[in-house]
## 1
Amino acid sequence: MKNETRANATTTVFGSEKMLTPAPTQTIPQHKTTPEIAYQMVKDETYPQTQPRLNLATFVTTYMDEYATRLMNEAIDVNYIDETEYPRVAVMCGRCINILANLWHTPEKAEWKAGAVGIGSSEACMLGGVAAWLRWRAKRKAAGKPYDKPNLVMSSAFQIVWEKFCQLWQIEMRTVPISLKNQTLDAEAAIKLCDENTICVVPIVGVTWTGLNDDVEALDRAIDAFNKKTGYDIPIHVDAASGGFILPFLQPEVKWDFRLKWVWSISTSGHKYGLVYPGLGWVVWSDKSCLPGEMSFSVNYLGASITQVGLNFSRPAAQILGQYYNFIRLGFDGYREVQQNSMDVACYCHEQIGRMKCFRNYAEEMQNPLFIWYMDPEYDKTAKWTLYDLQAVLQQSGWMVPAYTMPKDIEKMVVMRIVVRQGMSRDMADMLLNDIQNAVAGFEKLKYPTQSRLDYEAQIKQKGRVYTH
Ligand SMILES: Cc1ncc(COP(=O)(O)O)c(C=O)c1O
C-alpha cells in the first residue's frame, strides 16, 4: 500500500511518499506536508554543494562566531526600512557609517556622516556612481551645457557592477587596458581618457581579477593637475569592495581614502573583509555636499537628522547588527589581527605556489589576502593539462579554486585565484597545497592530453601563445 499523500504528524521523513516524488519545479504542490519533510527536501537539495569555507572563489564571509550568528538569527524578522518601528537599527546603521567614514579619514565634521547601507558593494557602487552623475549633470545644466554624453573612466579590470551601472544609466564606459607590464590602472592613461563629460574616475582597491590595488594617490595627483589645467572638477569614487577593510588595518600609511583631495566617495562590502555574512555594502561621501539632494531623504526622529539613500527599500536589518557587533567585538586591534592572519596565510600559499615549477605568480607583491597565478610559460609548452583540469580535480576534494581568463587585452591568459578569508587557517592551507601537489603529480603521469588541453592547443594554433613575460 502506498504511504498516504498527505503526511501527518506520525509520518517518518524517509518513509513518506514525498521522498518518492520529484521535487516541484514548475507548479506549487497541491497538498501540504510536514515541516520536517519540507525541511529535509530543501536541505538535501544543497547537499552536493561546496562547503562555503572551502569556497576559495568567493570574497564573501563564510565564517562568523556564535554570538554574531545568534544576534543575526534573532533579527531575521526585522526589516531595516521600518525605522519607525526599529529606530535603534537605524541608529546602529548611522554609527557604522560614522565608524567607516572616520576609519577612511572623512573631513566631515557633522555628527552623522553622509553615507548609505547597501545590499552589497554593487548597490553601494551604483549609489556612488549615481551621485557622481547627478552632480556632473547639475553643473552642466547650470552652465547651460549639454548633459547627454556622460562617461566614466576606470581600468579594464573592472568588476561587472560597473558595466551594469554604465548600461543601466547609459553612461559611456572608458577603460584603460591592464597588461602584464601595467598590472593596475595607469593614472596618466586614465587622464588621457577624461574630458568635460567625465563624471568620475573609479580606481579599485582590491581588484577582483588580480587582488592588487590601483594607485589612488598617483591618480589623485594626476587628476589634480588635470583639473587645475582644464578647470574641470572630475572626482574619484574608490571601489574599495575588498580593500576598504584591509588597507586601514594593514597599511594605514597608504593614502587611498578621504585624505586625498579628489576622493569624494568610497564604497565597500561589509560582507567581504567587513566580516559579515551576505548581503551588506556601504558607501560614504566625503561630506554632505557630495550627496545630491535628489538621492536622499531625511528622518528626524533619531535625535538628529539622519540621511537615507538607497536603491532597495526593504532589506535585512540582521547584517547591520552583525557589522556593529563586529566593530564592538573585534575593535581595531581585532580587525587587524584577523586581516593579518588572512594575509599571512595568503602569503604562505603565494610563496608555496610560486615555488612549484609548473606555476608562476602573477605579481610578486601581495596587497590583499588574495592572489592569482598562471602556468609557467616553459612548462606550458609540454603540459598535458590546464588549470581548468586542476580546478576540476580540486573540486573533488571539496575545494573551489576557480580558473578563469583575464579581462580584455589579456583575455587569452588563464589564471587561478585563491581568496583567503577569516576561517582559512594555515592547516587548511597545507591541506589545499597538498591536494594541489597531488593533482599535479597525477597530471604529470598522463600519457595523453586532457580534453581541456586539446581545446587549449587548438586555440593556440588559431590565436598564438599568451605569455609575453
Ligand atoms: C571590486 C569589486 N567591486 C564590486 C563588487 C561587487 O560586490 P558585491 O558582490 O558586494 O555586490 C565586487 C565583488 O567581488 C568587487 O570585487
## 2
Amino acid sequence: MNVLITGGAGYIGSHAAQRLLRDGHTVAVVDNLSRGHRAAVAALQDGANGGRLAYAEADIADRAAVEGLITAHGITVVMHFAAFASVGESAQDPLLYYRNNVSGMIALLEACAATGIERFVFSSSCSTYGQPPEHLIPTPEDCPQAPISPYGMTKLHGEHLLGHYAERCRAAGRPFAFAALRYFNVAGADRGGRLGEDHDPETHLIPVVLQAALGRRERVAILGTDYPTPDGTCVRDYIHVEDLVDAHVAVMQALRPSDARAYNLGIGKGYSVREIIDAARAVTARPFEVVEAARRPGDPPRLYADPARIEREIGWRASVTDLHTIIASAYAWFRDHPTGYGA
Ligand SMILES: NC(=O)c1ccc[n+]([C@@H]2O[C@H](COP(=O)([O-])OP(=O)(O)OC[C@H]3O[C@@H](n4cnc5c(N)ncnc54)[C@H](O)[C@@H]3O)[C@@H](O)[C@H]2O)c1
C-alpha cells in the first residue's frame, strides 16, 4: 500500500515508517520537525530495504504540501501520528494543543477529502478516558470518554472529527474507513538499534528512569506513594513500540469501506512505578537515586487496557508483555545513543 505517515520523524511514527518500508510498502513522511528528528528520517532512508520513502518537511496544516505528497505518491492510507503529546504542557498552553492537534487535524482531513483518502489510522490515547471508574479497570473501549487534560480532549476531538467526516463520506457514497487506536503507555525501541525515543523534555517514566541509570539526570522522583495500589505507586500499561506498530499494520489491512473502529492498544496488565524502577535496576545493573515526592494532580491510581476487542475482531495481541524485555530494548537505545539523535 502507499501510506502517508504524519509525524514520521518522531518516536512512534518513525518506527511505523520503518516497519512499513521493510514490508515493501511505499511510505511518504510529513513532519515539521517541531518535536521530531531529521536523523530519524535519515535512519529510515538508510534502512529502507527496498521500500520507497519520500519525505516532506512541512506542517500537517500546510494543505498544498500534504495534498502534493499524497498525489505524487499515490497515497490511499494515512497514519496520523503528528501531534503534541505532553499532558503537562497541554495544561500550561491549551491553545497550542488545540491549534496543533485539532486545527492541524482538520486541515489534514480536508487534504484527505480533496485527494480521496480511503483509510485513516489515528493515534488516539487512553487519556481520552480520563479517570475510569474502578469497575472499568481494566478499561474497555466502551468506557465513557471523559478527558481530564487539554491533551486528552484534543485526542477526543480527533476521534469525533473522524466520526463526523466518515458519516458524511458514507452518506455521499465515498469509501472512507478509520480506526482510532487508543494507546496506553508506549515504550521500548527498535530492536535493530536504528530508532528510539528522544523527547525533550522527556516526561515518560521508562526513559526518565533509564536516563537516571545512565547518569544523565540526577534522580528519579516517585510522584505519590500513597495510592490505593499494592505498593502505593501508580500502575500503568506499557506496550512495546514494535507491537504497537504491528497493530497499526493489522488494523490498516483489516479496515473495510465505511468502518469506524476504536481499539485499545495495551498489554492488558499494569506495572507500578516501583516495579519499573526495580526492573530498570535489574536490567541496567546501575545504581541511581530515587526520591519520594507528592502526588501529581490528575494521575489516576491505576490505568490499564482491556485489549480484548482487537484480539476478538482482528486476531491481534501484544507479543511482548514482560517488563524486563521492554526495558532492555529501551535501555539498548539509550546506552548506545546517550544524546539521542544528537549523537
Ligand atoms: N508516546 C506515547 O506513549 C503515546 C501514548 C498515547 C498516544 N500517543 C500519540 O502518538 C503520537 C506519536 O507520539 P510520539 O510519542 O511518537 O510523539 P513525538 O513527539 O515523538 O512525535 C510526534 C511527531 O509529530 C511531529 N509533529 C507535531 N506536530 C506537527 C505538525 N503540526 N505538523 C507536522 N509534524 C508535526 C513532531 O515533529 C514529531 O516528529 C501522538 O499523536 C501522541 O499523541 C503517544
